[in-house]
Design a protein that fits this description.
With 279 residues, the protein is of the alpha/beta class. It has helices spanning 3-11, 13-24, 32-35, 38-52, 64-77, 81-101, 110-150, 172-189, 206-221, 233-242, 255-265, and strands at 155-158, 161-167, 193-200, 225-229, 250-252. A five-stranded mixed beta sheet has the order 1-2-3-4-5, sandwiched between helices. Helix 2 (13-24) crosses helix 6 (81-101). The N and C termini lie far apart (93 Å).
Length: 279
């Protein structure tokens, strides 16, 4: 890139960053520039600006480590891939407009600028998006593992009664984990009644219902009974519409009602204790 343009970008770095921040605040569909603390917005904007200018003089290309580090931060800040693209485009546009206003870019070097522009912005865009995609995939995988560990445990709540709270989407991989933990837990805890709580499952379709029915059948094979609890009205309507048959095992709308049923099935009940006046 011509020396005068490089020097212009370095000289007016602060002004270009401020103008870029103001332009990004006009993007209504993203919340980062509207709801984050001002000091965090400025710090992130400065890091982005440093990254955008990191390869204008470099003969070795984009600083990959800096790109990966920045991508990690913006993934956790909730930047979408669309917003990342807009940020790069806006920065290049603001830079051009500012340098043109200062007379650094003019008709005499316009063609040269555009020829060299592709060697500056496009490698950066590709590096940032590649780093973003890798970090996003890593984050999603970590969340998936954490969710699996969190929502596939059988918890003993009373003698002979255990609960398995299910949270999040149930796919084939998670269903296998649920089945394994459920059967191992039933045998280990000697549970006679198991409550599968789907209060935290956002969608119950035919596939999810099939997995739940399989789990209930497996529990019966090891000598226990299974109750499905936490069936919200919208889930009940969906299951009826899909024609899913859940008649093989008992269902209740809440965990509390399911617990009462489980106590009755084990010949117990909850009794209120009267308080006596001690005088």
């Amino acid at each position: 890139m011509p020396n005068e343009i490089v020097e212009g970008l370095k000289t007016y770095k602060e002004e270009i960053m401020k103008a870029w921040m103001e332009r990004m605040k006009e993007t209504e569909e993203e919340h980062f520039f509207h709801y984050m603390p001002e000091h965090l917005i400025e710090k992130t904007s400065r890091e982005f600006t440093d990254l955008m200018l990191s390869n204008i003089e470099s003969s070795t290309g984009v600083d990959v480590d800096k790109s990966i580090d920045f991508a990690s931060k913006i993934v956790h800040f909730g930047w979408s891939i669309k917003f990342v693209n807009k940020a790069v485009d806006s920065f290049s546009t603001v830079s051009f407009e500012f340098l043109e206003k200062e007379g650094i870019i003019h008709a005499g070097n316009l063609r040269t600028f555009f020829d060299l522009f592709m060697n500056w912005i496009e490698p950066l865009r590709e590096s940032i998006i590649d780093s973003y995609s890798a970090e996003w995939e890593r984050t999603v995988n970590l969340q998936r593992v954490a969710l699996q560990e969190l929502s596939a445990s059988l918890i003993p709540v009373f003698d002979k009664i255990s609960v398995m709270p299910l949270v999040g989407t149930i796919d084939t991989e998670r269903a296998k984990l649920i089945m394994e933990n459920l059967l191992e837990g039933v045998v280990e805890q000697r549970a006679e009644v198991v409550l599968l709580d789907i209060t935290g499952v956002p969608v119950v379709d035919t596939m999810v219902a099939h997995h739940l029915i399989q789990a209930a059948d497996a529990v019966r094979l090891v000598g226990s009974q299974c109750l499905l609890v936490g069936i919200r009205p919208e889930i009940a309507q969906t299951l009826v519409t899909l024609g899913v048959d859940l008649s093989e095992f008992m269902t209740t709308s809440t965990l509390q009602r399911g617990m009462k049923e489980a106590l009755q099935m084990t010949n117990r009940k909850v009794v209120e204790v009267e308080k006596h006046d001690e005088r």
